[in-house]
């Protein structure tokens, strides 16, 4: 589970170290206070896209880290083991600079953003406030049913078989149609690959060359500026040290009483003289020990010129050359291999098709078996959420053409009122109904997830009153099985939480900062009262909040 989130200079957060716990944690605050900031920071650690807007105004970089306890997460430990990463902890870190560059680490080892995203899938699930919109798409129905049926890994493997089958089939068709074109393509590839072999662009070399070129090209100007600064400090007629010396000398001739009155000023002038002398020595040392290297600058610019020339020749960006090199090398290897044997390739295509269809049928049987249980589980949650008259079912029909996900089309069907035929979810549910249906489906799916930590971002939109309290009870039940973070505006939901995280925005020193803190019992009462009655907290509102919290925390779920 997520046990700590540390944020530095992200959005309007200057510094935050947040310890998190198991169970259900409610996240509340006034509109615009920054609840989305916490989720955004967590999202960066999970591999979401970053931009320069992530960095707090006036800062050089944003630095976010998330620490997870994975002692009970076998999949996460296996993922780390497969990549030879340390397993003594699970610390994800992301740094975004003001220039827009991003770096990522797992347990102190540099990784790609896609690595963060891949590991994050084993650590935490995020159910957004727009999840009910995703439920209008049939691909979401298929994914949720597969999760419930425990077929996620099998479907991923099926996708690999499907893409392999399609690639071999395409290759066979190309070879059958190509004829002499294959030989011409082989010769072109040999020339292109040989040219890229000679370039031998190393990983990270382009970025290193660009940084070095910038530094070398500006070094002469930097040295001139440093010499000018040193001259300004020196003891010539117009230098700062000379002027300070004259100032000290003249004040030193003042009457003793005046000198006592100016004691602080004299001390500061003396200290300034010492500081400027030290600065002058440092500047002279820098100028004397730093040498221009025009030869190295020429070498760097020549190397960059060659990289850009070949990139233009291949109509790609310079940073894409390494990927291009790999793709062309792979294609050349395939052309020079034994794939010209059409009979053998045709047999391989047939075997790949049979393997795909066999696994697709097995997954289809598992889906059929799980669909009824899934439908009944959602139906039970709908009744709990005040939609007892609605009927929900999972319809599975054959696809017209094979897909990476299999041979089945999965569609969630619902009848809002007795006697009406079931229709697709997108054609029946109103906005309020859709929010409750979405929550029912997510709760059922979450109960069968292998990931114990989940974030629910305002999934209670569109509900209120008694239904809101039931929503809170549902989330609390899930929290009893793992860790639930739920962003909510509803006091009925927040009161059900085991823990309560409050977020507020404050103006400090002409800037706006977000603060986050776990509330104690008294703090929870005040926050619930605010959510119930607004800014002014009356005794009656506070009493209502206390009653709500006591009832929620002592209720048997």
UniProtKB/TrEMBL annotation:
<keyword id="KW-0547">Nucleotide-binding</keyword>
<keyword id="KW-0067">ATP-binding</keyword>
<keyword id="KW-0234">DNA repair</keyword>
<protein>
    <recommendedName>
        <fullName>DNA repair protein RecN</fullName>
    </recommendedName>
</protein>
<comment type="similarity">
    <text>Belongs to the RecN family.</text>
</comment>
<dbReference type="Pfam" id="PF02463">
    <property type="entry name" value="SMC_N"/>
</dbReference>
<keyword id="KW-0227">DNA damage</keyword>
<feature type="domain" description="RecF/RecN/SMC N-terminal">
    <location>
        <begin position="12"/>
        <end position="506"/>
    </location>
</feature>
<keyword id="KW-0175">Coiled coil</keyword>
<dbReference type="InterPro" id="IPR027417">
    <property type="entry name" value="P-loop_NTPase"/>
</dbReference>
<comment type="function">
    <text>May be involved in recombinational repair of damaged DNA.</text>
</comment>
<feature type="coiled-coil region">
    <location>
        <begin position="262"/>
        <end position="289"/>
    </location>
</feature>
<dbReference type="InterPro" id="IPR003395">
    <property type="entry name" value="RecF/RecN/SMC_N"/>
</dbReference>
<feature type="coiled-coil region">
    <location>
        <begin position="192"/>
        <end position="229"/>
    </location>
</feature>
<feature type="coiled-coil region">
    <location>
        <begin position="335"/>
        <end position="362"/>
    </location>
</feature>
<dbReference type="InterPro" id="IPR004604">
    <property type="entry name" value="DNA_recomb/repair_RecN"/>
</dbReference>
């Amino acid at each position: 589970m997520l046990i700590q989130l540390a944020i530095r200079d992200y959005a309007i957060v200057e510094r935050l170290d947040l310890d998190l716990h198991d169970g259900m944690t409610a996240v509340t605050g006034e509109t615009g206070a920054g609840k989305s900031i916490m989720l955004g920071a967590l999202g960066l650690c999970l591999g979401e896209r970053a931009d320069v807007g992530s960095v707090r105004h006036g800062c050089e970089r944003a630095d976010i880290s998330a620490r997870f306890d994975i002692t009970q997460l076998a999949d996460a430990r296996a993922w780390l083991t497969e990549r030879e990463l340390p397993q003594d902890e699970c610390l994800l870190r992301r740094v975004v600079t003001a220039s827009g560059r991003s770096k990522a680490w797992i347990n102190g080892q540099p990784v790609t953003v896609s690595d963060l995203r891949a590991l994050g899938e084993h650590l935490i699930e995020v159910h957004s406030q727009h999840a009910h919109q995703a439920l209008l798409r049939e691909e979401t129905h298929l994914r949720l049913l597969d999760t419930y049926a425990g077929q996620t890994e099998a479907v991923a493997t099926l996708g690999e078989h499907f893409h392999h089958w399609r690639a071999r089939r395409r290759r066979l068709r190309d070879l059958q149609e190509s004829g002499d074109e294959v030989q011409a393509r082989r010769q072109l590839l040999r020339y292109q690959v040989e040219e890229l072999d000679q370039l031998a662009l190393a990983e990270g070399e382009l970025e290193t060359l660009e940084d070095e070129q910038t530094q070398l090209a500006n070094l002469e100007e930097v040295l001139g500026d440093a010499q000018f600064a040193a001259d300004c400090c020196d003891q010539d007629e117009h230098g700062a040290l000379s002027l300070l010396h004259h100032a000290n000398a003249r004040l030193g001739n003042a009457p003793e009483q005046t000198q006592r009155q100016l004691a602080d000023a004299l001390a500061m002038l003396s200290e300034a003289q010492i500081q400027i002398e030290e600065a002058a020595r440092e500047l002279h040392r820098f100028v004397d020990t730093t040498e221009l290297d025009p030869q190295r600058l020429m070498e760097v610019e020549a190397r960059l010129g060659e990289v850009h020339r070949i990139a233009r020749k291949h109509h790609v960006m310079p940073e894409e050359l390494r990927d291009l090199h790999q793709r062309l090398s792979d294609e050349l290897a395939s052309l020079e291999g034994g794939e010209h044997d059409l009979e053998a390739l045709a047999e391989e295509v047939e075997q790949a098709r049979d393997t795909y269809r066999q696994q697709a049928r097995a997954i289809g049987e598992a889906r059929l078996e799980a669909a009824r249980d899934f439908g009944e589980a959602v139906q039970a949650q709908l009744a709990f959420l005040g939609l007892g008259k609605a009927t929900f079912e999972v319809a599975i029909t054959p696809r017209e053409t094979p897909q990476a996900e299999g041979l089945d089309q999965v569609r969630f069907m619902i009848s809002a009122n007795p006697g009406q035929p079931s229709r697709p979810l997108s054609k029946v549910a109103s906005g309020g109904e859709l929010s409750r249906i979405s929550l029912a489906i997510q709760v059922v799916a979450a109960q069968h997830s292998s990931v114990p930590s989940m974030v629910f971002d305002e999934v209670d939109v569109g509900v209120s009153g008694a239904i809101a309290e039931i929503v809170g009870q549902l989330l609390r039940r899930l929290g009893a099985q793992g860790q639930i973070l739920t962003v909510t505006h509803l006091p009925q939901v927040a009161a059900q939480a085991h823990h309560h995280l409050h977020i507020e925005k404050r103006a400090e020193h002409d800037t706006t900062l977000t603060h986050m803190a776990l509330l104690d019992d008294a703090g929870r009462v005040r926050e619930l009262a605010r959510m119930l009655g607004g800014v002014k907290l009356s005794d009656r509102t506070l009493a209502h909040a206390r009653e709500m919290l006591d009832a929620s925390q002592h209720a048997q779920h």
